[in-house]
Amino acid sequence: MRYYSTRRKTEPVDFTAAALAGLAPDGGLFVPGEIPAYPAAVRSSLGTMDFCDIAFETIKPWVSPDIPAGALQDMIRSAYPFGAPLVAAGDRQVLELFHGPTAAFKDFGARFMARAFSYLRRGEDRPLHILVATSGDTGGAVADGFFGVAGILVTVLYPRGRVSPLQERQIAGLGGNVTALAVEGSFDDCQRLVKAVLADGELKKRLALSSANSINVSRLIPQAVYYAAASGRALAGKTDPPGEASPWDRERGPSSGDHAVRRGERITLVVPSGNFGNLTAGIYAWKMGAPIRRFVAATNSNKTVPDYLADGDYRVRPSQATISNAMDVGAPSNFERMACHLSWEEMREAILGMAVSDEETRETIRHVHGGAGYFLDPHSAVGWTAADKLLDQGLFDAGPLGILSTAHPAKFAETVEPLTGPVPVPPSLTAALERKPESRRISAEVSALLDILGEN
Ligand SMILES: *Cc1c(COP(=O)(O)O)cnc(C)c1O
After folding, report:
1. Over the stretch 366-421, which tens digit does the pLDDT of each residue have?
2. Axis-axis angle for helices 413-420, 358-371 (nearest 10)
3. Which of 95, 105, 215, 227 for mutating ligand 1's site (highest number of atoms within 8 Å of CB)?
4. Which CATH topology does 86-102+217-426 take?
5. From the alpha carbon of 380, which atom of ligand 1 is closest?
6. Domain ranges within the chain, ordered by starting residue
């Protein structure tokens, strides 16, 4: 596979170069020359294949020939001991993406990326230094994904006092090859420090520095896998039993009504979105041949993309704080990729947009728990609400409907519990809560970060 920059000002590169560089030299994002298609035999068996086999068939063309089949199989088996069940909830389905170690969908991308980086760097004697700035969720997934991976050192910068106690333990409780830096400043300060250091070409080479943010192709590609698996199951008319870590493990029957899965019918998937990496991965799965009918781009009040879908005018704006804070993005970085693959008209065919307020989100968490007995986290509740609003407005007719659940509700207990009562905590989060966070405080100055990097 050759990767081009969305800005087309640099020569195409192979997967290794695209993954290790992250951003293209012209400031664009790497996109494939041509989106690969599933072989017919794979497409017709998506409904019955095992998650890891779907992962192999999905990822293979994107990393070939740089990662050979055997190595890819090993990476996938070790990255995904958990899957992504499509479970029944009331009148629709939920695609649960929170069964990984940090209980959010970012585990899918981060765990594959870590293994890919380790493989691509094999034989190098210098460790690769990964820098990542986080407002909370990404840092935990990246720290956990890279923890103990040979040949890689990770430094996570987070704003001191501005992440939840659970998030701090996920970032700073591991130790080993993960260094946590509590920056005296905001998330924007953290990002500024990382960017400044990565922009220093000489330093970047000398210390073998890279980053692990969501624009990296190696984090994006593995996210296409659960779209293919879920849409295949839905087309076969099947759902999965709730996963082990679900807080609602009581017996539940299949969904009923107009939006239940039915054999031969394609599913519409609702994607709670911020930077739009997840939805971009969905578009890749769909273009590869996954049987998806349509997408819904669900946002909180940061509604740059729903507005664009409505009037064709793309206006980025400052981000607004909401209760679904992992989606507080006014200038979604992956939009550049979407616009590279689809015109406005094509986007409007494939994607319905809908923005949701905090008040509506809270109301949904409350009534879905009261009605279907299902606990939604605030991000997934944005997705559920967006579907409700489209249905109310007659913009969505009958047909199977699935909401992507991007995080476990226990991760956001402070918002969810006042609306539902106690949320059961999955074992992965209980274990994280028992860790002791150990981080180093630094001032929000580039020199402070350089001092720490210089020690290694
Ligand atoms: C990151 C995140 C999102 C947004 O995903 P994008 O790929 O940035 O659109 C949604 N929900 C949760 C819980 C997240 O952590």
Report:
1. 999 998 889 999 999 999 999 999 999 999 888 999 999 999 999 999 999 999 99
2. 50
3. 105
4. Rossmann fold (3.40.50)
5. 11
6. 86-102+217-426
